[in-house]
Specification:
With about 250 residues, this protein is an alpha/beta fold. Helix content is about 45%, strand content about 15%. The structure holds 2-phosphoglycolic acid.
Amino acid sequence: MGKYVIAGNWKMNKTPAEATALINEIKPLVADAKVDVIVGVPFIDLQAALDATKGTKIGVAAQNCHWEKSGAFTGEIAAEMLKEMGVGYVILGHSERRTYFGDTNESVQKRVRGALDAGLTVILCVGEYLEQREQGITGEIVATQVKVALGGVSAEELKRVIIAYEPVWAIGTGKTATAEQANEVCALIRDVVKGLYNEAAAKELTIQYGGSMNAKNAEELLAQSDVDGGLIGGAALKAPDFSTIVHAAKV
Ligand code: PGA
């Protein structure tokens, strides 16, 4: 995996047939990408995405996984299951999972553990709510999310972790963090990781920004010193926009 990573988070969008069609549209547009490209699709689209990306460098991500290998967890999917089918990545701790489906820092930590044990690469999402930013506690909130989620993760395992900073107030709202705001928190995350591990680990870490990143604002956001990529929601569902973002990263 390279340092710069642009990942699409499709959320609960696209049927398998639609996923195949969208990936087939994306493929030629990103064939010469200088950054790593990932599509994060609904569980039922994973096989279609794996088939459609075969022979390309596009990675495929799930949007959640459970920490146990198997068992009585109705509606959940084990990291091991994803690994066996050939999925390389999993998005964990997304704010929508935290807000609507009860994920906590502690459960995210367990999911990270399960994913790393299964051999997956994790895209770990962190970010503050608007009230928290207004209270001036963004730094504490994000630092705690990072520290708890990485509890027990070794320096070697950290090489399979990407952190996505996604201010919740910027997700799906059209309100992007300014490039400075994005960079400030990404730099803080890097500092937290430096404290937990060491300078080299912090330097190597891929830190993405996410939250209304689009074809227009991507270049400025991706030009920031501590922003190493993007986690893209809405704009990832349109092949030309997604490809513009992929090509906006100057590596
Ligand atoms: P958005 O979503 O780009 O639609 O704001 C980003 C995300 O939730 O990952």
